[in-house]
Amino acid sequence: MSRRTRGACRRTRALPTGRRGAAVAIVASVIAGCAAALVFTGARADTSGPGTAAVSAAAPVVSADVRRSGLEDLQPATRAMQLDDGQNPGMLWVIEGESAWARRPDPGAPSCADCHDDARRTMRGVAARYPAFDAGLARPVDLGQRIDLCRTRHQGTAPFGPETAPRLQLEAFVAHQSRGLPIAPPDDARLAEFRARGALQYRTRMGQLDLACADCHDRNAGRRLGGSLIPQGHPTGYPIYRLEWQAAGSLQRRLRGCLTGVRAQPHAYDAVEAVELQLHLMRRAAGMPIETPAVRP
Ligand code: HEC
Ligand code: HEC
Known about the structure:
Elements: E1 3-6, E2 9-14, E3 27-30, E4 38-41, H1 76-83, H2 90-102, H3 112-116, H4 119-122, E5 132-134, E6 139-141, H5 143-154, H6 165-176, H7 192-203, H8 213-217, E7 224-225, E8 228-229, E9 240-242, E10 247-249, H9 251-261, H10 272-284, E11 295-296
Helix pairs in contact: 2-6, 5-6, 7-10
One heme C binds next to helix 8, helix 9 and helix 10.
């Protein structure tokens, strides 16, 4: 049990005291202008699933699979919004991405479509196997970064940059072509060390609140934190339209939210650490269907 003082923030934390099945108490009270008390409430579901165990992309999802997408935890109205393309605000990004696909960035430069033709065919399944290794950079890149690499390498123009509207639109359009397909992380030995670092990051406690991703998304998934239900944290629907943002955003942005939530330093956009974490999340969600564009609170 640790007790620490950092600036004006003092935190005390009591670890599970409940009897088996009873409400576990993890209470981190943060006082003096830092944040509201962090209290997990509600019954804890066994949600670790095949999660961190090695999940083969080819293996069918077995009946013992207790993994659930955040979609299943949405309020009925939000869920209906995601499931109806006419209502899903994320579809606006997909539609913008579709027109950008065919547009030439400069008169002499090729459009995405000039090289990749009909995305419905050529981009089907691509998002399901990202992040992927890029030989030129000798490191993995996520789908948004891959699109920017095509800008610089193949269109001879400037990258859009992380979280810009045009990159999110093209990413949403490309990822949408995989909707319904199972997440299928590539079996590429070059990814192994990066993925392992992502898995380590996932279970390492961080930030002033001293919590690991696993503390919330495995051990306390299904319970409530303040008003929010803690989902299992599967990256099934990115880019998502988030009601809180009133906009679409990438998985990187979502992860930054969780990192700042525990008062940890978020990764810089496109940093290799951010991609490592994504590699781990995609492995953990292997076999779950892509939903892009998902809607989340
Ligand atoms: C001049 C041809 C060319 C253009 C234009 C181009 N790309 Fe590419 N793209 C490639 C090549 C070649 C690859 C294979 C990886 C590499 O060499 O960088 C690729 C790879 C990709 C991939 C990964 C595919 C996979 O199977 O992993 C995506 C996604 C992608 N491009 C999207 C885009 C988008 C979006 C645009 C428009 C902004 C675009 N590309 C423009 C040639 C192009
Ligand atoms: C203090 C608890 C907590 C910690 C620690 C935490 N998260 Fe979260 N996370 C949440 C909550 C709560 C949400 C849902 C927020 C909402 O939808 O309002 C969430 C959402 C997510 C989502 C979105 C899932 C979806 O359905 O789109 C992902 C992915 C995620 N977290 C990953 C992580 C990772 C990776 C870490 C570690 C770096 C982490 N989280 C740390 C509480 C936490």
